[in-house]
Amino acid sequence: MNVETSVRVEDKLFYNRYLVDVGRPHIKVRAHTKPSPQLLALLKVCPARCYELNDKGQVDVTVDGCIECGTCRVIGEPTGDIEWSYPRGGYGVLFKFG
Amino acid sequence: MIEEKFDAIVVGAGMSGNAAALTMAKRGMKVLQLERGEYAGSKNVQGAILYADMLEKLIPDFRDDAPLERHLVEQRFWIMDDRSHFGVHYRSEDFNEERPNRYTIIRAQFDKWFSSKVREAGATVLCETTVTELARDAHGKVIGVRTDRREGEIHADVVVLAEGVNGLLGTRARLRERPKPDKVALAVKEMHFLPRETIEAHFNLKGDEGLVVEAAGTISRGMTGMGFIYANKECISIGIGCIVADFQRTGETPYGLLDRFKRHPSVAPLIEGSEVKEYSAHLIPEGGYKAIPQLYGDGWVVVGDAAQLNNAIHREGSNLAMTSGRIAAEAIVQVKSHRQPMTAANLSVYKKMLDDSFVIKDLKKHKDMPMLMHTNSQNFFLTYPQLVSRAMQNYVRVDGTPKAEKEKVTLKSFVNARSWTGLFGDAFRIARAWR
Ligand SMILES: Cc1cc2nc3c(=O)[nH]c(=O)nc-3n(C[C@H](O)[C@H](O)[C@H](O)COP(=O)(O)OP(=O)(O)OC[C@H]3O[C@@H](n4cnc5c(N)ncnc54)[C@H](O)[C@@H]3O)c2cc1C
Ligand code: SF4
Asked: B184-285: which CATH number, 3.30.1320.10, 3.30.9.90, 3.30.70.100, 3.30.1490.270?
């Protein structure tokens, strides 16, 4: 069995505590028709699997499970593919252990 | 709420920010510390090993009440291929000493404690507050910050940027560059809970003794990276990190790597039966000496991970963060005590003091290591581990083959894989980078 598909990231995120800032996502993907290689890389490298392909073949982000590592910023901000900020103070992931 | 002006504003309540805020508050400065997390530590991730010496310099009696897990008595280095590991283990009774040198900690809990010490010293600590921008005067001098908590600016003579590896403020203000994909590693980590006795049995520990495993090899699938396993009192921290550019290049997933590491036959029995309670991820600065940015300017200094002060070769970061935070604070106290303004020229004393410390000296010593590891990752993290494993197996397996023949086979496998020039070249390059 392929390891990658057998790991259920959603289950992992379920262990974590979050305070979601509803309606104010801290990461935005720039509108595009065809995703850049950088944007496509995010589908795999994001540890919370926040990036997904929609049915039009574009990359969407859902930040509810984001663990705020900054990896997508390092890859996607220089090309202008994404806009990245921290969540508002107090919102986002709340590590109990870290 | 905050109309008055502060002597210093510290952005971030991690290792470096707490060290800086504590040092300045203890010296009577009026300090405001801002942290975006719900509490200090709620955004922070570490392995985590705490180095006592650097904390003693800030809080000499920290052992009385700090939330420490286990003191380390054993260090294991593993070179792994898919089915084996070859290890160097160092364990000594000397580490069962009155004032142990290294402890495992749980970072979120530790930071909460550290932050309580900062408050006790007299600093004002505001959590749930994200600093959104640096405030500057007409000449570009940093004069304070803007936050998402209230309108307007909060002013101070100097701002200490202890904002961690992402360093959004400093990069947005063009004080330094955004970290590049080949200069940072992404690490993912899980906390596995087990009864105390089980952990002690799995790792051959008694009482509060602790142990660390650091592992490299085929677990990183040819990328530059390392796995780690740290024994805490009632849980095990397990994780793996690789350079972001390598993830980008290979299309490997971080959770796929972690899963594979956890299922490795040498690792699985250690965490068997555990309950996972958290999954986290964080970047680690890996660029070393050559990636250190400008450390001070008019009205600001930068410390810790934000300044890339991280020794990836030795897995040290929190101690460099604490030390740079403390030294920056001492420099600021010095400038203030001379009644001098917080200009770049006056704050340059921070860099001079840091250059004289182990922080810069250690990073300088290994300045060529990060590049070497990165450009040779296939050899160091895939080819050699496999060769070592085969050599060891050939050595220990008793099957009637004469020893001389066995040695020839081993040598041949190395030469075939890397050639004589390759082997000597690698040895030479490592020796030179280590020197
Ligand atoms: C998986 C892993 C394992 C590690 N293991 C070890 C180890 O065993 N030993 C070791 O010594 N080091 C280790 N390190 C490195 C160590 O964790 C770091 O070097 C250290 O935490 C750096 O401290 P810092 O204060 O510079 O940054 P951080 O600890 O990251 O603190 C930055 C703080 O600033 C806050 N902040 C950032 N921006 C803003 C803003 N705009 N407004 C308000 N607040 C803000 C953040 O919320 C955070 O609290 C490890 C790191 C990782 C990721
Ligand atoms: S910050 Fe990290 S966890 Fe959040 S979306 Fe980006 S890569 Fe994923």
From this structure: 3.30.9.90
Q: What number of helices (H) and strands (E) belong to chain B?
A: 15, 17
Cut 0.90: pTM above it: yes
Tell if the CB–CB gap between A67 and B279 is shorter than 8 Å: yes
Nearest C-alpha of chain A: how many angstroms from B250? 9
Who contacts B160 (Cβ-Cβ below 8 Å, separation ≥6)? B8, B9, B10, B11, B17, B20, B21, B300, B301, B302, B303, B325, B328, B329, B332
Domain A3-88 is of which CATH architecture? Answer: 2-Layer Sandwich (3.30)
Per-residue pLDDT of chain A (98 residues; tens, 9 = 90+): 444 456 889 999 999 999 999 999 999 999 999 999 999 999 999 999 999 999 999 999 999 999 999 999 999 999 999 999 999 999 999 999 99
Closest CA to B196 of B231, B226, B223: B231
- Ligand 2 atom at shortest distance from the alpha carbon of A69: 2
Residue whose C-alpha is closest to residue A7's, from B269, B257, B227, B246 = B257
Which residues 6+ apart lie within 8 Å of B324 measured at CB?
B16, B19, B303, B304, B307, B309, B354, B359
